[in-house]
Design goal:
By secondary structure, the protein is of the alpha/beta class. It is 46% helix and 16% strand.
Protein backbone atom coordinates (compact mmCIF):
# COMPACT_ATOMS: atom_id res chain seq x y z
CA UNK A 1 0.00 0.00 0.00
CA UNK A 2 1.23 3.48 -0.81
CA UNK A 3 1.81 5.79 2.15
CA UNK A 4 0.28 9.13 1.23
CA UNK A 5 -0.11 12.24 3.36
CA UNK A 6 -2.45 15.12 2.79
CA UNK A 7 -0.99 18.19 1.09
CA UNK A 8 0.13 21.16 3.17
CA UNK A 9 -0.71 23.98 0.75
CA UNK A 10 -1.63 27.46 1.96
CA UNK A 11 -2.32 30.84 0.42
CA UNK A 12 -0.99 34.12 1.83
CA UNK A 13 -1.71 37.73 0.89
CA UNK A 14 0.13 40.97 1.53
CA UNK A 15 0.19 44.55 0.33
CA UNK A 16 3.33 43.68 -1.68
CA UNK A 17 5.51 40.67 -2.49
CA UNK A 18 7.83 41.29 0.47
CA UNK A 19 5.04 41.22 3.08
CA UNK A 20 3.38 38.17 1.50
CA UNK A 21 6.66 36.22 1.43
CA UNK A 22 7.36 37.25 5.02
CA UNK A 23 4.02 35.71 6.02
CA UNK A 24 4.95 32.51 4.17
CA UNK A 25 8.28 32.29 5.97
CA UNK A 26 6.71 32.90 9.41
CA UNK A 27 4.03 30.23 8.84
CA UNK A 28 5.89 27.53 6.91
CA UNK A 29 9.55 28.29 7.57
CA UNK A 30 12.44 29.07 5.25
CA UNK A 31 12.08 25.68 3.48
CA UNK A 32 8.64 26.55 2.09
CA UNK A 33 8.13 25.88 -1.61
CA UNK A 34 6.58 28.77 -3.57
CA UNK A 35 4.04 27.37 -6.03
CA UNK A 36 2.63 30.58 -7.47
CA UNK A 37 2.76 34.35 -7.03
CA UNK A 38 0.13 36.63 -8.53
CA UNK A 39 -1.53 40.00 -8.05
CA UNK A 40 -5.19 39.96 -7.01
CA UNK A 41 -7.79 42.70 -7.17
CA UNK A 42 -8.89 44.41 -4.00
CA UNK A 43 -12.42 44.88 -5.28
CA UNK A 44 -14.16 48.10 -6.18
CA UNK A 45 -12.55 50.25 -3.46
CA UNK A 46 -9.88 47.98 -2.04
CA UNK A 47 -6.20 48.03 -2.86
CA UNK A 48 -4.63 45.30 -5.03
CA UNK A 49 -2.63 42.70 -3.11
CA UNK A 50 0.00 40.08 -3.86
CA UNK A 51 -1.13 36.48 -3.33
CA UNK A 52 1.43 33.71 -2.78
CA UNK A 53 0.57 30.01 -2.82
CA UNK A 54 3.14 27.96 -0.93
CA UNK A 55 3.64 24.48 0.48
CA UNK A 56 5.63 23.01 3.34
CA UNK A 57 8.87 21.60 1.95
CA UNK A 58 10.68 19.44 4.44
CA UNK A 59 14.08 19.12 2.73
CA UNK A 60 14.16 22.04 0.32
CA UNK A 61 17.52 23.21 -0.89
CA UNK A 62 18.71 26.38 -2.55
CA UNK A 63 18.32 24.62 -5.89
CA UNK A 64 14.67 23.84 -5.06
CA UNK A 65 14.11 27.49 -4.23
CA UNK A 66 15.66 28.54 -7.54
CA UNK A 67 13.49 25.98 -9.38
CA UNK A 68 10.37 27.26 -7.64
CA UNK A 69 11.27 30.85 -8.50
CA UNK A 70 11.89 29.86 -12.11
CA UNK A 71 8.55 28.06 -12.25
CA UNK A 72 6.78 31.18 -10.94
CA UNK A 73 8.56 33.35 -13.51
CA UNK A 74 7.66 30.93 -16.32
CA UNK A 75 4.01 30.90 -15.22
CA UNK A 76 3.96 34.70 -15.33
CA UNK A 77 5.59 34.65 -18.76
CA UNK A 78 2.99 32.17 -20.03
CA UNK A 79 0.19 34.44 -18.82
CA UNK A 80 1.76 37.40 -20.64
CA UNK A 81 2.11 35.36 -23.84
CA UNK A 82 -1.53 34.23 -23.52
CA UNK A 83 -2.54 37.90 -23.38
CA UNK A 84 -0.43 38.65 -26.46
CA UNK A 85 -1.95 35.76 -28.39
CA UNK A 86 -5.48 36.82 -27.46
CA UNK A 87 -4.72 40.39 -28.56
CA UNK A 88 -3.35 39.20 -31.89
CA UNK A 89 -6.32 36.92 -32.34
CA UNK A 90 -8.84 39.72 -31.86
CA UNK A 91 -7.07 41.97 -34.39
CA UNK A 92 -6.34 39.49 -37.19
CA UNK A 93 -7.94 40.26 -40.60
CA UNK A 94 -9.70 36.89 -40.54
CA UNK A 95 -11.39 37.80 -37.28
CA UNK A 96 -12.42 41.19 -38.61
CA UNK A 97 -13.98 39.42 -41.58
CA UNK A 98 -15.79 37.06 -39.21
CA UNK A 99 -17.15 40.07 -37.32
CA UNK A 100 -18.30 41.68 -40.56
CA UNK A 101 -19.96 38.42 -41.58
CA UNK A 102 -21.80 38.19 -38.28
CA UNK A 103 -23.09 41.74 -38.73
CA UNK A 104 -24.56 40.70 -42.08
CA UNK A 105 -25.89 37.44 -40.66
CA UNK A 106 -28.27 39.19 -38.28
CA UNK A 107 -29.77 41.69 -40.74
CA UNK A 108 -32.68 39.45 -41.65
CA UNK A 109 -33.48 38.71 -37.99
CA UNK A 110 -36.22 40.46 -36.09
CA UNK A 111 -35.20 42.84 -33.30
CA UNK A 112 -36.00 40.12 -30.73
CA UNK A 113 -33.87 37.51 -32.52
CA UNK A 114 -31.03 39.99 -32.99
CA UNK A 115 -30.94 40.55 -29.24
CA UNK A 116 -30.34 36.85 -28.67
CA UNK A 117 -27.85 36.57 -31.55
CA UNK A 118 -25.77 39.47 -30.22
CA UNK A 119 -25.79 38.02 -26.70
CA UNK A 120 -24.43 34.72 -28.03
CA UNK A 121 -21.73 36.61 -29.93
CA UNK A 122 -20.84 38.70 -26.88
CA UNK A 123 -20.35 35.46 -24.97
CA UNK A 124 -17.83 34.32 -27.62
CA UNK A 125 -19.92 31.84 -29.60
CA UNK A 126 -18.87 31.16 -33.19
CA UNK A 127 -21.07 33.34 -35.50
CA UNK A 128 -22.10 30.41 -37.67
CA UNK A 129 -23.11 28.32 -34.68
CA UNK A 130 -25.02 31.26 -33.17
CA UNK A 131 -26.91 31.91 -36.39
CA UNK A 132 -27.85 28.25 -36.80
CA UNK A 133 -29.21 28.07 -33.25
CA UNK A 134 -31.27 31.25 -33.65
CA UNK A 135 -32.66 30.11 -37.02
CA UNK A 136 -33.65 26.72 -35.59
CA UNK A 137 -35.35 28.41 -32.64
CA UNK A 138 -37.30 30.69 -34.99
CA UNK A 139 -38.33 27.78 -37.20
CA UNK A 140 -39.70 26.02 -34.10
CA UNK A 141 -42.16 28.87 -33.62
CA UNK A 142 -40.28 30.96 -31.07
CA UNK A 143 -40.56 34.70 -31.70
CA UNK A 144 -39.71 36.81 -28.67
CA UNK A 145 -36.23 36.82 -27.15
CA UNK A 146 -37.70 35.23 -24.01
CA UNK A 147 -38.80 32.32 -26.22
CA UNK A 148 -35.79 32.07 -28.54
CA UNK A 149 -33.13 31.99 -25.83
CA UNK A 150 -34.75 29.27 -23.65
CA UNK A 151 -35.18 27.14 -26.80
CA UNK A 152 -31.44 27.49 -27.50
CA UNK A 153 -30.56 26.65 -23.89
CA UNK A 154 -32.75 23.53 -24.06
CA UNK A 155 -31.14 22.47 -27.34
CA UNK A 156 -27.61 22.98 -26.03
CA UNK A 157 -28.34 20.93 -22.92
CA UNK A 158 -29.04 18.00 -25.22
CA UNK A 159 -25.62 18.42 -26.82
CA UNK A 160 -23.55 19.45 -23.79
CA UNK A 161 -23.87 17.02 -20.91
CA UNK A 162 -22.03 16.68 -17.62
CA UNK A 163 -20.11 13.65 -16.38
CA UNK A 164 -19.04 12.73 -12.88
CA UNK A 165 -15.92 14.53 -11.69
CA UNK A 166 -12.60 12.66 -12.03
CA UNK A 167 -12.24 12.61 -8.23
CA UNK A 168 -15.74 11.20 -7.58
CA UNK A 169 -15.98 8.00 -5.57
CA UNK A 170 -16.44 5.55 -8.44
CA UNK A 171 -14.51 2.42 -9.34
CA UNK A 172 -10.72 2.45 -9.77
CA UNK A 173 -9.72 4.24 -12.96
CA UNK A 174 -6.81 5.52 -14.98
CA UNK A 175 -7.24 8.95 -16.60
CA UNK A 176 -4.93 10.62 -19.10
CA UNK A 177 -5.19 14.36 -19.72
CA UNK A 178 -4.40 15.18 -23.34
CA UNK A 179 -4.51 18.37 -25.38
CA UNK A 180 -2.41 21.20 -26.83
CA UNK A 181 0.38 22.94 -24.97
CA UNK A 182 -0.41 25.72 -22.51
CA UNK A 183 -3.94 24.66 -21.60
CA UNK A 184 -3.05 23.74 -18.01
CA UNK A 185 -2.97 19.93 -18.07
CA UNK A 186 -0.33 19.56 -15.35
CA UNK A 187 -2.03 22.06 -13.05
CA UNK A 188 -5.39 20.34 -13.67
CA UNK A 189 -3.85 17.00 -12.66
CA UNK A 190 -2.56 18.55 -9.43
CA UNK A 191 -6.04 19.92 -8.70
CA UNK A 192 -7.74 16.59 -9.43
CA UNK A 193 -5.24 14.70 -7.27
CA UNK A 194 -5.66 17.13 -4.38
CA UNK A 195 -9.46 16.95 -4.57
CA UNK A 196 -9.30 13.15 -4.66
CA UNK A 197 -7.07 13.11 -1.59
CA UNK A 198 -9.15 15.61 0.36
CA UNK A 199 -12.70 14.75 -0.74
CA UNK A 200 -12.66 11.01 -1.30
CA UNK A 201 -9.44 9.94 0.48
CA UNK A 202 -8.26 8.13 -2.64
CA UNK A 203 -4.81 6.62 -3.05
CA UNK A 204 -3.27 8.39 -6.04
CA UNK A 205 -0.58 7.55 -8.57
CA UNK A 206 0.91 10.10 -10.99
CA UNK A 207 2.52 9.27 -14.33
CA UNK A 208 3.97 11.68 -16.87
CA UNK A 209 4.94 10.99 -20.48
CA UNK A 210 5.85 14.66 -20.98
CA UNK A 211 9.58 14.33 -21.60
CA UNK A 212 9.57 17.06 -24.27
CA UNK A 213 9.27 20.23 -22.19
CA UNK A 214 12.19 21.28 -20.04
CA UNK A 215 11.28 20.71 -16.40
CA UNK A 216 7.82 19.31 -17.14
CA UNK A 217 8.38 16.04 -15.29
CA UNK A 218 9.99 17.95 -12.40
CA UNK A 219 6.88 20.10 -12.06
CA UNK A 220 4.60 17.08 -11.68
CA UNK A 221 7.11 15.40 -9.37
CA UNK A 222 7.11 18.53 -7.19
CA UNK A 223 3.32 18.43 -6.95
CA UNK A 224 3.53 14.73 -6.11
CA UNK A 225 6.08 15.36 -3.38
CA UNK A 226 3.94 18.08 -1.81
CA UNK A 227 0.92 15.75 -1.71
CA UNK A 228 2.86 12.62 -0.77
CA UNK A 229 1.96 10.94 -4.07
CA UNK A 230 4.39 8.70 -6.05
CA UNK A 231 5.28 10.03 -9.51
CA UNK A 232 6.68 8.04 -12.44
CA UNK A 233 8.32 9.34 -15.63
CA UNK A 234 7.54 7.19 -18.67
CA UNK A 235 9.39 7.25 -22.00
CA UNK A 236 8.37 3.94 -23.60
CA UNK A 237 5.94 1.03 -23.29
CA UNK A 238 8.19 -0.90 -20.92
CA UNK A 239 8.36 2.05 -18.52
CA UNK A 240 4.58 2.49 -18.81
CA UNK A 241 4.01 -1.17 -17.89
CA UNK A 242 6.32 -0.78 -14.88
CA UNK A 243 4.55 2.40 -13.75
CA UNK A 244 1.13 0.76 -14.08
CA UNK A 245 2.38 -2.18 -12.01
CA UNK A 246 3.72 0.18 -9.34
CA UNK A 247 0.37 1.97 -9.07
CA UNK A 248 -1.88 -1.08 -9.14
CA UNK A 249 -3.15 -0.46 -5.60
CA UNK A 250 -4.07 3.18 -6.35
CA UNK A 251 -7.71 4.21 -6.61
CA UNK A 252 -6.94 6.85 -9.22
CA UNK A 253 -4.01 7.00 -11.63
CA UNK A 254 -3.50 10.30 -13.48
CA UNK A 255 -1.34 10.51 -16.61
CA UNK A 256 0.12 13.83 -17.76
CA UNK A 257 1.01 14.32 -21.44
CA UNK A 258 2.93 16.80 -23.56
CA UNK A 259 1.18 19.34 -25.75
CA UNK A 260 2.08 18.31 -29.29
CA UNK A 261 0.87 19.96 -32.48
CA UNK A 262 2.02 17.76 -35.36
CA UNK A 263 -0.11 14.64 -36.08
CA UNK A 264 2.88 12.26 -36.03
CA UNK A 265 3.98 13.29 -32.52
CA UNK A 266 0.40 13.23 -31.23
CA UNK A 267 -0.07 9.72 -32.66
CA UNK A 268 3.16 8.43 -31.07
CA UNK A 269 2.21 9.87 -27.68
CA UNK A 270 -1.32 8.48 -27.88
CA UNK A 271 0.08 5.06 -28.70
CA UNK A 272 2.17 5.19 -25.52
CA UNK A 273 -0.69 6.48 -23.36
CA UNK A 274 -3.14 3.89 -24.62
CA UNK A 275 -0.74 1.10 -23.66
CA UNK A 276 -1.99 1.69 -20.10
CA UNK A 277 -4.92 -0.71 -19.48
CA UNK A 278 -8.43 0.81 -19.55
CA UNK A 279 -7.14 4.38 -19.76
CA UNK A 280 -9.79 7.08 -20.18
CA UNK A 281 -8.81 10.12 -22.27
CA UNK A 282 -9.88 13.58 -21.08
CA UNK A 283 -9.27 16.30 -23.68
CA UNK A 284 -8.24 19.54 -21.91
CA UNK A 285 -9.10 22.79 -23.70
CA UNK A 286 -8.50 26.40 -22.69
CA UNK A 287 -11.67 28.48 -23.03
CA UNK A 288 -9.46 31.57 -23.37
CA UNK A 289 -8.31 30.30 -26.77
CA UNK A 290 -11.40 31.38 -28.73
CA UNK A 291 -14.07 29.59 -30.76
CA UNK A 292 -12.10 29.24 -34.00
CA UNK A 293 -9.07 27.61 -32.39
CA UNK A 294 -11.14 25.45 -30.04
CA UNK A 295 -13.00 23.98 -32.98
CA UNK A 296 -9.72 23.30 -34.81
CA UNK A 297 -8.12 21.60 -31.78
CA UNK A 298 -11.22 19.46 -31.26
CA UNK A 299 -11.08 18.28 -34.88
CA UNK A 300 -7.37 17.49 -34.47
CA UNK A 301 -7.96 15.29 -31.42
CA UNK A 302 -11.33 13.79 -32.32
CA UNK A 303 -9.91 10.71 -34.05
CA UNK A 304 -7.98 9.71 -30.92
CA UNK A 305 -11.16 8.91 -29.02
CA UNK A 306 -11.41 11.47 -26.22
CA UNK A 307 -14.12 10.27 -23.82
CA UNK A 308 -14.44 13.41 -21.68
CA UNK A 309 -13.80 17.15 -21.97
CA UNK A 310 -12.21 19.45 -19.39
CA UNK A 311 -12.39 23.22 -19.92
CA UNK A 312 -9.77 25.41 -18.27
CA UNK A 313 -8.96 29.14 -17.85
CA UNK A 314 -12.56 30.32 -17.59
CA UNK A 315 -11.23 33.18 -15.49
CA UNK A 316 -9.18 34.41 -18.46
CA UNK A 317 -11.88 34.06 -21.13
CA UNK A 318 -13.70 37.08 -22.51
CA UNK A 319 -15.98 34.77 -24.49
CA UNK A 320 -16.43 31.40 -22.72
CA UNK A 321 -19.17 30.26 -25.13
CA UNK A 322 -16.40 29.58 -27.63
CA UNK A 323 -16.11 26.25 -25.79
CA UNK A 324 -19.32 25.19 -27.52
CA UNK A 325 -17.42 25.00 -30.82
CA UNK A 326 -15.32 22.17 -29.42
CA UNK A 327 -18.35 20.53 -27.79
CA UNK A 328 -20.11 20.50 -31.17
CA UNK A 329 -17.16 18.65 -32.75
CA UNK A 330 -16.49 16.20 -29.90
CA UNK A 331 -19.86 15.45 -28.40
CA UNK A 332 -18.62 14.00 -25.16
CA UNK A 333 -19.56 14.86 -21.55
CA UNK A 334 -17.66 17.52 -19.59
CA UNK A 335 -16.10 16.14 -16.41
CA UNK A 336 -15.00 19.42 -14.75
CA UNK A 337 -13.99 23.04 -15.35
CA UNK A 338 -11.09 25.15 -14.05
CA UNK A 339 -11.20 28.89 -13.42
CA UNK A 340 -7.90 29.80 -11.78
CA UNK A 341 -4.44 28.61 -10.69
CA UNK A 342 -5.19 27.76 -7.06
CA UNK A 343 -4.76 24.11 -6.08
CA UNK A 344 -7.29 22.64 -5.51
CA UNK A 345 -9.86 25.44 -5.08
CA UNK A 346 -10.16 26.41 -8.75
CA UNK A 347 -11.55 23.16 -10.17
CA UNK A 348 -15.25 22.34 -10.09
CA UNK A 349 -17.64 19.51 -10.82
CA UNK A 350 -20.46 20.42 -13.23
CA UNK A 351 -24.11 19.65 -13.99
CA UNK A 352 -26.03 19.86 -17.25
CA UNK A 353 -27.67 23.07 -16.04
CA UNK A 354 -24.56 24.78 -14.69
CA UNK A 355 -22.58 24.16 -17.88
CA UNK A 356 -24.90 26.06 -20.20
CA UNK A 357 -25.39 28.86 -17.68
CA UNK A 358 -21.62 29.20 -17.26
CA UNK A 359 -21.04 29.58 -20.98
CA UNK A 360 -24.12 31.65 -21.90
CA UNK A 361 -24.79 33.70 -18.72
CA UNK A 362 -28.44 34.56 -19.52
CA UNK A 363 -29.73 38.02 -18.65
CA UNK A 364 -33.26 38.59 -17.26
CA UNK A 365 -34.36 40.10 -20.59
CA UNK A 366 -33.68 36.78 -22.34
CA UNK A 367 -35.63 34.62 -19.90
CA UNK A 368 -39.38 34.01 -19.71
CA UNK A 369 -41.24 36.38 -17.40
CA UNK A 370 -42.43 34.57 -14.31
CA UNK A 371 -46.10 35.46 -13.85
CA UNK A 372 -47.43 35.20 -10.32
CA UNK A 373 -50.70 33.28 -9.83
CA UNK A 374 -53.78 35.45 -10.37
CA UNK A 375 -55.10 37.07 -7.21
CA UNK A 376 -58.84 37.37 -6.62
CA UNK A 377 -59.78 41.07 -7.00
CA UNK A 378 -62.29 40.82 -4.13
CA UNK A 379 -59.47 39.52 -1.87
CA UNK A 380 -57.29 42.51 -2.87
CA UNK A 381 -60.12 44.96 -2.16
CA UNK A 382 -60.88 43.26 1.13
CA UNK A 383 -57.26 43.39 2.25
CA UNK A 384 -57.28 47.18 1.90
CA UNK A 385 -60.22 47.77 4.22
Amino acid sequence: MMNQSLPTIRTFRGRDARSALTAVKEALGSDAIIIETRQVSGGLFGRAQVEVTAALGGDSSRQTERDSRMETDMAALRRVMDDVRRTLHTTRPADRKAGEASDGAERDFSAEARRVFRHLQDRGMDPGQARTLVEEALSSGAERASEVFPWIVSDLRKQLSAASAPWSADARRTIALVGPTGVGKTTAIAKIAARALLDTRFKIGLITVDTYRVGASDQLARYGKIMGVPTFVVRDRAAMAAAVQSTQDADLVLIDTAGRSDPESILAQMDLVKSAPNVQLHLVLSVATGARELGAVARRYKSFGAERLIFTKLDEADGPAGALSAAAVIQRPVSCICDGQRVPEDIHAVTDESLVETFLAPTPALLPVRVSPAVNKEQVRGSGR
